[in-house]
Design goal:
The chain is of the alpha/beta class and 297 residues long. It has 12 helices and 9 strands. The chain has 2 domains: 162 residues, 3-Layer(aba) Sandwich (Rossmann fold); 117 residues, N-(1-d-carboxylethyl)-l-norvaline Dehydrogenase, domain 2 (Orthogonal Bundle), CATH 1.10.1040.10.
């Protein structure tokens, strides 16, 4: 049955476009905006209305969902949307914004009478396309009825971790989860780079740990990307560098030294400088080599 909830999705990159498509397929009234309009236009085929400006997208919307590069980008889009925002509308802020930017986002919501929900998601391209994300949400209970069909369409599970979106509890949990994901990605990339450097068949490494406590699905997935040489992004190396920067900054603010995260941030930064920033984050593999060394195949 079609739902009459109106949702504006601001940001239609890898994640936002998949989320918008699933919202449309669930029968919601979906409007989309992206800074580069061409990235949003394919969503028209799924029933979404493509807007020229953030204000056009949010006009009359019950829910505004932001899925942009970082906190400042989300705030900029919402400021541009401000003239058309409806007081009482729900803002689901799903960008991995980090903690430093959250105060400004929550202040904007208060200023404009929005119900602010901090709702980052766990998952990359495939889970997003399949509507299998995990939503980590914190926000007022009165926002939940409007968000129920939205979160049901984009995810397989919603975990409510608090009633105050401005507290940062959901974003803090997202940073902890991402620190683990990105550590595994960096570890997989370095292990396969070392195998190449030492002349070891990477399949021997995978066979040696198969079925034991050191084996894991995520390692297998990233190893397959590197060994197959297809770096079509599920999550880009440039975004991984950004997220690790947020993780390191959050740790420093809390008095926690994150040596592995800091080293990972440097690897992703180096891979990005080498021209691999828009490839899958497994491209941190290339940071182990100078120039053209390291084939990934």
């Amino acid at each position: 049955m079609a739902d009459n909830t109106s949702v504006a999705v601001l940001g239609t990159g890898i994640m936002g476009s998949a989320m918008a498509r699933n919202l449309s397929r669930a029968g919601l009234d979906v409007r989309v905006w992206n800074r580069t309009r061409a990235k949003a236009e394919p969503l028209a085929a799924d029933g979404a209305r493509v807007a020229d400006t953030p204000a056009d997208a949010v006009d009359g919307a019950d829910v505004v969902l932001t899925m942009l590069y970082d906190g400042p980008a989300a705030l900029d889009a919402m400021r541009r949307a401000a003239p058309a925002l409806r007081p009482g509308a729900v803002w689901s802020q799903s960008t991995t914004a980090g903690l430093a930017a959250l105060d400004d986002l929550a202040a904007f919501a208060r200023e404009h009478g929005l119900l602010f929900v901090d709702a980052p998601v766990l998952g990359t391209r495939q889970p997003a396309e399949n509507g299998q994300l995990t939503v980590l949400a914190a926000g007022p209970t009165e926002a939940r009825p409007a968000l129920a069909p939205v979160f049901d369409a984009i995810g397989s599970r919603t975990t409510w971790v608090g009633e105050d979106g401005a507290s940062g509890v959901a974003s803090r949990l997202k940073l902890v989860c991402n620190s683990w994901t990105l550590a595994v990605t960096s570890g997989a990339a370095e292990a396969l780079a070392l195998a190449e450097g030492l002349g070891v068949d990477p399949r021997s490494f995978l066979d040696a740990i198969a079925g034991g406590p050191l084996d894991m699905g995520y390692l297998r997935a990233k190893a397959a990307v590197i060994m197959g040489g297809d770096f079509t992004p599920s999550f880009t190396a440039a975004n991984a560098a950004k997220d690790l920067g947020l993780i390191v900054a959050a740790g420093e603010a809390a008095g926690v030294k994150l040596d592995v995260a800091a080293a990972g941030a440097e690897r992703f930064r180096r891979a990005t400088e080498q021209g691999h920033g828009e490839k899958d984050m497994a491209a941190s593999y290339f940071a182990s080599f100078d120039g053209e060394a390291g084939t990934g195949g």
